[in-house]
Design brief:
about 170 residues, mainly alpha, binds fe (ii) ion
Amino acid sequence: MLINLGQRPAADDLLGLLLDCHTRIRTFSALAVDLGRREGLPAHQVEQACDRCARYFSEALPLHVADEEVSLLPRLSAGRAEVQAALASMHGQHQEHEAPLRALLAALSALRASPGDAALRARLLEVATPLAAAFEEHLQLEEKHLFPALDALLSPQVQAEVVAEVRARRSPRT
Ligand SMILES: [Fe+2]
């Protein structure tokens, strides 16, 4: 395996849940870059890593974006000017990520189909590297300017509501 994600208990508070999501974004961005760089991996490892990355970026990441856009943004929008500016940047960056994410998923799918193809690996590296950098900038914006404001702007009851929404997004639908 390229990266061992390890196992640790999931957070149960809002900040912890959001930071766990950020850890996963960094982990899978790094995995995509690593996959683009590594020569000579067995085909089955390349296929597995492509599948894990594609599943994360197509299924899990959109849930985190919804956590922030749907559950957090409206509740923080009465914050001071610095928080409002960070929310506007966050929203804009979520939109800016959409096209490179589509390119990343296309590159993963192509490499998954031909795991030994060096040109497809190079293409993955070409799209994954700037996207990983864009994610890092985005995560740092949220961690520096939004997350520290959570306790001041959201009562424990409102934070519990957000946590319930975050969990509901991930609960299996019946
Ligand atoms: Fe975000």
